[in-house]
Design goal:
The chain is α/β, with parallel strands linked by helices. Helices cover about 40% and strands about 25% of the residues. It is globular. Bound molecules: adenosine-5'-triphosphate.
């Protein structure tokens, strides 16, 4: 489904990503692990068309996206939940969710999908009329994930969903991601600092260090890897 090869990207004269190659298959949850500044968010931005790669290929269901803008990437079915959520804080929960329906298909399917996301996150139905900026951090993250789901992703990118959230809320959000992958065939790229939780939920993973893929394997292989244990799990 997603096949990235030799991806290079950076900011101005500074290169951050060095020839990243990875893939995400249909219905698969793939974790991207790495410490602060390793290049994970830069990778997300390069895949989602927000940052133009200087080299490499981003092939999604046979379509080359590396030179496309973020709107074209969105239309192809790659929807991201950005780090820091980026909600419209002066708009209600419902209005934020409406913003997720960005084209004709998603607008026509909106009411059905709204009921679906309210089943996943019942709290959002209760808070439909509340301004997003007045929600708790966990509720805001739910709105961000729900808004992405309204966009009917084939590939959902979650960038650090656990940031600043209580563990039980992170579990709820990852449970929704797992259910979507298992039951609806949506693929998930999970960028996550909480490596234990990420590996518990993912099928496979990649470790990014200094803008390069340092390791890859199944979640079980990475969890048992001595380097991962020492450098990331502190065991
Ligand atoms: P974190 O887990 O802390 O979010 P990350 O792995 O997502 O880290 P990136 O945000 O991709 O890391 O950052 C990788 C490098 O790129 C860092 O050295 C950062 O300072 C640099 N960088 C990020 N954004 C910019 C920018 N807009 N301009 C210049 N450099 C940037």
């Amino acid at each position: 489904m997603l096949k990235v090869e030799g991806l290079r990207a950076g900011y101005g004269a500074i290169n951050i990503l060095w020839d990243l190659s990875f893939e995400v298959n249909d219905g698969e949850i793939v974790a991207f692990l790495g410490s602060n500044g390793a290049g994970k968010t830069t990778m997300v931005r390069a895949v989602s068309g927000m940052l133009k790669p200087s080299a490499g290929s981003v092939l999604f269901n046979g379509e080359e996206l590396a030179k496309k803008n973020s709107r074209a990437v969105l239309d192809s079915g790659i929807v991201q939940v950005p780090e820091g959520r980026q909600l419209f804080t002066e708009m209600t929960v419902l209005e934020n969710l409406e913003m997720g329906a960005f084209n004709k298909t998603t607008r026509e399917a909106f009411s059905g999908n709204l009921q679906k996301v309210y089943q996943w996150f019942p709290k959002l139905a209760e808070r439909e009329r509340q301004l997003a900026g007045t929600l708790s951090g966990g509720e805001q993250q739910m709105v961000a994930v729900a808004r992405a789901l309204i966009g009917m992703p084939k590939l959902l990118i979650l960038d650090e969903p656990s940031l600043g959230l209580a563990p039980n809320i992170v579990d709820d959000i990852l449970a929704v991601a797992s259910s979507m992958a298992r039951n609806d065939g949506i693929s998930v790229m999970l960028v996550e600092q909480d490596i234990t939780k990420a590996l518990a939920c993912a099928d496979r993973g990649y470790v990014i260090e200094n803008g390069r893929i340092a390791l890859e394997g199944t979640a079980a292989e990475l969890g048992a890897n001595e380097h991962v244990k020492k450098a990331y799990l502190g065991i």
